[in-house]
## 1
Amino acid sequence: MYAQGHPPKDYTFLLSHCLLNQKVRAERAYTSGVTQRLLGILSHYPVWLEQLPCPEFSFVGERGRKPKDEWENLRGFREHCSDLANEIGERIRELAERNAPFLLLSIARSPSCSSGQVYRGKRLVGGKGILVEELEKRVKLNFLEFDFGRVSWSLQKIEKCLKVLGEL
Ligand code: SF4
């Protein structure tokens, strides 16, 4: 375990935007305590935090829930994600060039930010969100997925990961 304030490496957590600002979530969804609990855990470890932009809110603002196929059919949205991925990818390449490890906290089932499953119509299928797909065309990523439907489980997973990193 490393001492607080003395990271063994320069570790960066790239946070999906809504983990720190739920205002951007579809249908104004809000899960109480998420940001406070997440920051409470992260603050015990010497990691850098970077908040990624929200691709959906920055494209359409407030919105209803849509499956991935509807976002794919929305004109200009993939290009918007591609532009964001260029900027984010640039930053990630800088981290990679100085061998600074990083992890992206993705969002379970998000049509834009998932790293595991997405909805196609009403079916939940394997696949990544559109922003994540665009990022992976540019850089190699490691993910840890946060599930707003399983907050305690997600937080435990993050804390376990931080403890493991501290032992490296
Ligand atoms: S999962 Fe991604 S697109 Fe959805 S609200 Fe969070 S940051 Fe925005």
## 2
Amino acid sequence: MRGIIDDLINALTRLPGIGRKTAQRLAFFILSMPDQEALSLSKAIEKVKEKARFCSICFNITENEICEICSDDSRDRSKLCVVEEPSNILVIERVRDFHSPYHVLLGSLSPIDGITPERLKIKELVGRIRDSEVQEVIIATNPNTKGEMTAQYLKEVLAPLGVKISRIAYGLPMGSDIEFADEVTLGKAIEGRREI
Ligand SMILES: [Zn+2]
């Protein structure tokens, strides 16, 4: 008995922001849930792992070859918004009047952790912009050291392509994460973007 609960607790501690205490609380909560509810949680995890893949164009999460956003013809294709993670798209999509396509880098530069430009979807970004109708690349990486470093690097590699490159102006303290921005702040940040 002890062993299987420990396994669940250990698995839960692997989630971001979940310490041992919270994991214990969650494990015992799951144990007390009706079978059906607990199983639908595990089924949802199973399904997402089985079906989710990266969009072959923008690296957003999708069930299909090409994601819903890339397939949406009503998007303003003169702009391209670059983000670090697929989850960032969900946040930016809440901002009204801003509906460009995206490009997900799948991380940010961090040489100390071995995250070099080759590890990110930068080559794919350059290939995508070349010979496209993109006129402005809006860099929405996080307002922290890695996000800034990534934005500066992108500026250098995208410069020869002759597109306008802008960085969103966060109303957030330096060092924070785009995930925690509300849609009003983020809307203002996009509106107040500066060319870099
Ligand atoms: Zn896509």
